Amino acid sequence: MRVNHLIAFLALCLLGLPLAGHSSPSRPKIKGLAFVRLRVSDIGRSREFYEQTFQLGNHFNHCAGANSVCFRLSSSQAVELVQAEAPLDGSLVEQLGFWTEDLDGMRRYLTAAGIEVGKAFTDYDGRKRFELRDPEGHGIAFVSPPLPSALVFWPDQVSKQMLHAGFVVKDMSAENHFYRDLLGFRLYWSGGFKDVDRSAVASEKDIDWYEIQVPDGDNWIEYMLNIPANADRKELGVQNHFSLGVINAQVAAGQLRKNGLQSFDGPEVGRDGKNSLDAYDPDGTRIEVMEFVPTQKPCCHPYTAAHPKP
């Protein structure tokens, strides 16, 4: 091999670029959120809370370990609860799952990009998944498409659709390299407590919430930014959260009160222009009950992608 060819070959290897005749695998479609998994201090108490308060009745026991319960919101989404083995600390959102049309293809795609992924396995409901961690160590998983099912839901189930999940992010650039550059997530909305125009630069320090949608659907994840490194468990419970979609937040508030939950925040229109309320499970994890579309103009930055539909 000539010297100049050798230099070019080594440069391509160092940059991680594909060599001629060796094309990288393409990214399969990522359609939406499949599940959120929460650590809880008392599985019995938490199970009762989600059954009674949100009327989630379709469930699997021992689905994510010996002491766990998984509630099906729909055929494609679930809320998973696992008993914590040690005193609760840090984020109680243990893992987020995304479903893809081609699980094997997604595993090949991530492996080719140098991402360490776990082995694929069959889940409690017959779907396959594999697990990994993002650059900041947040647990995520990819799940195969929903299987045909005849799920029976309780008539008063507050919501059958998870809209988004949020988690504390310290290094926005590193997370964006993973979620946006590698996985193809796209900006949905960003904003903060201050009325500053953020349309020009997405990494300004005054951005407090940065929402990016999955590339092939309308669910999103939310970076919770500028959170103190020494935030206590109560604060982390507020920041690390998930959201359930409802057509009318006022109606949902009435349902929650009828179901025995008398204390929650809202409903009120937030900085994002959407009407929502905040409830908290027995361990302080926030469940945001949110309308699908905004009722007024959001602060800071316009929406740049389509809103989810009921």
Summarize the topology.
Elements: H1 3-15, E1 30-40, H2 43-54, E2 59-61, E3 68-72, E4 78-83, E5 93-100, H3 103-112, E6 121-122, E7 128-133, E8 139-143, E9 162-168, H4 172-182, E10 186-191, E11 209-213, E12 220-224, H5 233-239, E13 241-246, H6 249-258, E14 265-269, E15 275-280, E16 286-291
Parallel strand pairs: 1-4, 5-8, 9-12, 13-16
Antiparallel strand pairs: 1-5, 2-3, 3-4, 6-7, 7-8, 9-13, 10-11, 11-12, 14-15, 15-16
What does this entry look like structurally?
It contains six helices and 16 strands. The protein is α+β, with helices and mostly antiparallel strands and 310 residues long. The chain has an eight-stranded mixed beta sheet. The chain has an eight-stranded mixed beta sheet with strand order 10-11-12-9-13-16-15-14. A hairpin with a 5-residue loop joins strand 7 (128-133) and strand 8. The protein starts with a helix and ends in a 19-residue tail after the last strand. Mean pLDDT is 90; it is low at 1-21.
